[in-house]
Amino acid sequence: MDLTAAAPEVFLALAICGLLLVDVFLRDDQRRVTYYLSIVALIGAAATSAYYMPETSIVAFDGSFVADPAGTVLKMVAYLTVAVVFLYSRDYLEASGLMKGEFFLLSLFGLLGIMVLVSAHNLLTLYLGLELLALSQYALVAFNRESRISAESAMKYFVLGAIASGTLLYGISLLYGLTGTLELPALAAQFTAPGGVGVATLLALAFVLVGVAFKFGAVPFHMWLPDVYHGAPTPVTLYLGSVSKVAAFALAWRILVEALGPLHDSWRDMLIVLCVLSLAIGNVVAIVQPNLKRMLAYSTISHVGFIFMGFIAGTEEGVEAAMYYTVVYVLMAAAAFGMIILLSRKGFEAENLDDFKGLNARSPWFALVMLMIMFSMAGVPPFVGFYAKLVVLGAVLDVGLTWLAAVGVLFAVVGAFYYIRVVWYMYFAEATDTAPLFPGGDMKLVLSANALALLVLGVFPGGLLDLCARVL
Amino acid sequence: MTSWPLLSIVIWLPIAGAVAVLALGSERAALGKQVALAVSVLTFVLSVPLYTGFDTTIAGLQFIERVPWIERFQAYYYLGVDGISLPLVLLTTFLTPIVVIAGWQVIKLRPAQYFASFLLLEGLMIGVFAAADALLFYIFWEAMLVPMFIIIGIWGGPRRVYATVKFFLYTFLGSVFMLVALIYMYLEAGTYEIAAFHMLPLGMTAQTLIFIAFLLAFAVKVPMVPVHTWLPDAHVEAPTGGSVILAAILLKMGGYGFVRFSLPIAPDASQSLAWLMIGLSLVAVVYISLVALVQRDMKKLIAYSSIAHMGFVTLGFFVIFGIVARSQATDGALLALQGGMVQMISHGLVSGALFLCVGVLYDRLHSREIAAYGGVVNTMPKFAAFAVLFAFANVGLPGTSGFVGEFFVILASFQADFWIAFLAATILVLGAAYTLWLVKRVIFGDVANDGVASLQDIGGREFFMLAVLAVGVLLLGVWPAPLTDVMSPTLGALLDHVLQSKL
């Protein structure tokens, strides 16, 4: 059996097993070894992916798995983001007594789930990857045992997530019953055949879509998202807010485009409803959040609305736009949660907006970093967030949905308010907290690089855009 | 033509200067200030060859730079200036050193960030005027909001946060719809080149929607009634330098947008909606002048006066259809366009100077209330001379630059409709009323209080910046030919293009 198609997955699985063994024998004060080995595992996985970079789609394991260029790019983004998550989290975890091997191992297991999901060529493989990711995340949210609020949000996440998974699985079973296949292209071929769309198909579609919408956190399936973001330890929120968006995109792409693409006319209107609701609720509710983690949770919901726009267009450009938006969002979210970690210290979570007051006086550079992140999220050029909005708007305008583009930009303006409020707190308000910033130099360096990437990719957006266009 | 990429230099030099000043930080702010001044003066010097090397017989773009930028969108890093944008670029490079000088001793809080913001703003503003690619234009247009947001928010007055958030959201709201229109035209034309947009055949519905999208963006910037309410707040709360840049250059972007985008891209929609534009312009001229009359705050009064004067600009741009319909000749229409453009430049100088004058007083007594002053001429004679000169220019007295633009527009408007010209001409009366009344209450009369009695007259720094502006105002007033010569071919070509229906 040829395993090369899944070489990165195999490598990472083996690496995780090795890490598990090593971690058992480490004392608590040696936990950094796990950290370094995790980074090594990520680099190894990235190298494996790069070495086995597929030129075209390679279907393996009896049609249940596919290695394709787009998947490899998404995996690369995931490796990079997980590495950044670990880097941002290390000092915070050590300071708050949470430096445990579980954090790294569960995160890597989640990453493995993402990789399987990204490379799924069969709805069962897809589900397998999704559940591996979801289970790791449930555990990650609860991983601070001392915190009641973490436990509460993990419970919420688990119950609602299980329902969503069940819904998705039910939709998949309906599809199987209707078509007799679980392979993505075979499904697409079945639905391309002439003959109207039956009620049963629509039902299956609705169930699948609910599952996808839940994983994205699209309104009205968003209720878990703010509570989980708020309750989870900040490094875990960072993980949820950034890395798992790659999975959400891959899920929607594999199911909606590759398997159910021919049914675009049927799911498009459902997605439009989800999109408009997400834009509206996400942006409006974010305005009244005094807690930055909650604000970013609602901001995520609104960004999901924009990502959906790409799928709504349904064209090749639309999917590329959605992918580009996702990658850009992951970059921005990682930096934003990184800023929260930067300002936090032992026994203190800088998760309230007030904690950012007067940051310009404390650290002009990191105020500027946060300014770049916020303006990028608001979609103000020359930051990269602008191009993300530009491509999705272009995609929906191209298919004649001018009104949807108008709704999108209108809510982008609403959203701009809460982003610039952060800037106003940093620059125009007096500091309430004057403690020096604590974490080490490498985190500051990476965070700065992360924010500067938003600017550089904004001034020279061509490369990433072309990459997304080439691989899809 | 030189082979130097002059436009790129005048855009990126200030931006690089901003980074340098920022890197020096507040500890070495004194050095930072000198760097800022040096960079802004150097930028001005480098922008002079743009004028001397400009061929005034060509209507099209000159000093073109064009390299591929985002190939996926067919977007180019495409710069060039023509008779419309060159004067505005020069206005920007001319005023920025003055703004830097104006903040020289006054800014105590985070000086490095202050001067860096203005340099950044300068580069971005020049970029707006020089961009010949719509995407590049939009990037500069929006990016400008960031430093302006910071300038008003950090160094502004007591209600600065309210003012700056309002400013940001208003302008952002206006421009996102323009973005939708630009993307739409990109999808039609397959390129972001503005010249290609001009040639794009568009139906009446598309033209109308595009016109409205542009109107939202540009009307907020100009600002036109009823979306003008951000301006008085922003002006009152902004620091002096911010007010100068706002009044002198930012507002001009709205007017520039109308001639660069709205008129040539949607000529038929412009024609059919010209009544709306003329109506709003006249409301601005008459109603806002009356509002200015009752202001108690000097900055607010000048802010309202700005809105009224910018009403003249939009009037000049949109009255052309009426003129052509009535007279069948394009001479009058060309005069109206020229009047609008000259008015923009002149207002840039005059309003900038007036805000500087208010700044001079504010730095001394920390009050903008008219009632807090009186008899300033007794203690500050040199300052009073300048203030009175700029006030006369604001009124439009012959011999000052204010006269030229207003006279052109009123003269041309007569060819369209007597009543339009009549209402437009009320600015001469109302403008004189509020401006001269302001002068009377602040400058003349007996010394009103101890504060005024203790005033020191302007020093060399302030004298220099006001004198430079005074020379500009007088020069354009008596001899506007250098300005109109540059504009004429471009405006003539624009007029020919606009009068050809796209339907």
How is the topology of this model organized?
The complex is a heterodimer of chains A (472) and B (503).
Chain A: H1 7-24, H2 32-51, E1 58-60, E2 65-67, H3 69-95, H4 101-118, H5 123-141, H6 148-179, H7 184-192, H8 199-216, H9 224-231, H10 234-241, H11 243-259, H12 264-287, H13 292-313, H14 316-343, H15 359-362, H16 364-378, H17 384-398, H18 402-428, H19 441-459, H20 462-471
Antiparallel strand pairs in A: 1-2
Chain B: H1 6-24, H2 29-52, E1 62-70, E2 75-81, H3 85-102, H4 111-130, H5 134-143, H6 145-155, H7 160-189, H8 194-199, H9 204-221, H10 230-237, H11 240-265, H12 267-272, H13 274-293, H14 298-318, H15 320-327, H16 331-365, H17 376-379, H18 381-395, H19 401-416, H20 418-442, H21 450-453, H22 460-478, H23 481-498
Antiparallel strand pairs in B: 1-2
Report the biggest beta sheet of chain A as strand number plus sense, adding barrel if it closes: 2 strands, antiparallel
Radius of gyration of chain B: 22 Å
Total of helices of chain B: 23
- Averaging pLDDT over every residue of chain B, what do you get? 90
Form type of chain A = globular
Low-confidence stretches of chain B: none
Question: In this structure, how is the largest beta sheet of chain B organized?
Answer: 2 strands, antiparallel
